[in-house]
Amino acid sequence: MRILIVGDSYFPSSAYREPFERLAARHELTFLDLADEPGWVPQTPSEQRLKETFGSPAAVIGALDRHEVIVFQGAAISDAVLDAAPGLRAICCARGGPVNVDIAAATERGIPVVTTPGKNAEAVADLTIGFIVMLARRLPEVVRHVEGGGVFGHDNYEGSRWFGHDLGGKALGLIGFGQVGSRVARRAVAFGMRVVVHDPFVPPAAIAESGGEAVDLETLVATADVISLHARASADNRHLIGREEVARMKPGCLLVNTARDTLVDEEALAEGLASGRLGGAALDLVSPSPATGRHSLLAFPNVIITTHIGGATFETLQHAAEMIAAEIERLDAGEPLLNVANRAGLEARGAGSDAG
Predict the structure, then answer these.
(1) What is the end-to-end Cα distance of the chain in Å, rounded?
(2) pTM, whole model, 2 decimals?
């Protein structure tokens, strides 16, 4: 098969080379790295359905040459791209949700869209626990004190200003119990935390197997010492954490968000921090920073903001590339593909036998 591997600034094509070595003996591999096109404006209905893209569809179309498989992370895969590759057998998107792919167009053409669910689960779970430790021990405040020229190292008792909390015995509330949430639970149990979970899509028995207890959202918000968000964003859960939820939280509750910024009402969060209701927040995703000045939430010394680094590890890239390489081997062998985002659509139209 002819396979086009398209890299971007986050997931360069070089990250695929080692995991794809075993494919090189049987297949023709073409590596391409896109240049970002921040001025590109989606024009067609298909292009307007794409989100979180890197580059434009034209850049991908220009590299196509009878390719049967396209591998990428951020490339814009519109209907025009699919039409330029009439022999396409699979679209392999190295992310959990293929929001930069016109899924409907692929399904209409009988092409399976393969994804890599859980590729970054270990990395995000690690970061989540790191955030919890940092907030519980007031590290943001301590670091700012030191970096701001505060006195340290002169008194054996100066730590008395920075008393925090152990994690053992505290209740961690997880909203969402998928690939990441379940891993956070296992890590938290190792710290001696009690884990309560709200996820209506996961059976309580599965939650119990990981050491957690299934509860409703209201109970979780009212009883957790730390709340961590791991739900996929949707129209139904926008501002899942809003003023009502903040008002019901235990005094001093800590909030961690490594999922999506839309899950948190930032105005409500700021009010909770200002009132002292919240003991701190760690956010890997927030509203965009202003063109000048600081993000408004950084006015609070007990807030951590990071630049969407949850899955930014070399191991995440390698895991995703290995998952895709395995799917291509299944495709080549005529075996069912495992992670097909449009499986139901393909089955409904009686197409895409490769999807299994």
Answers:
(1) 19
(2) 0.92
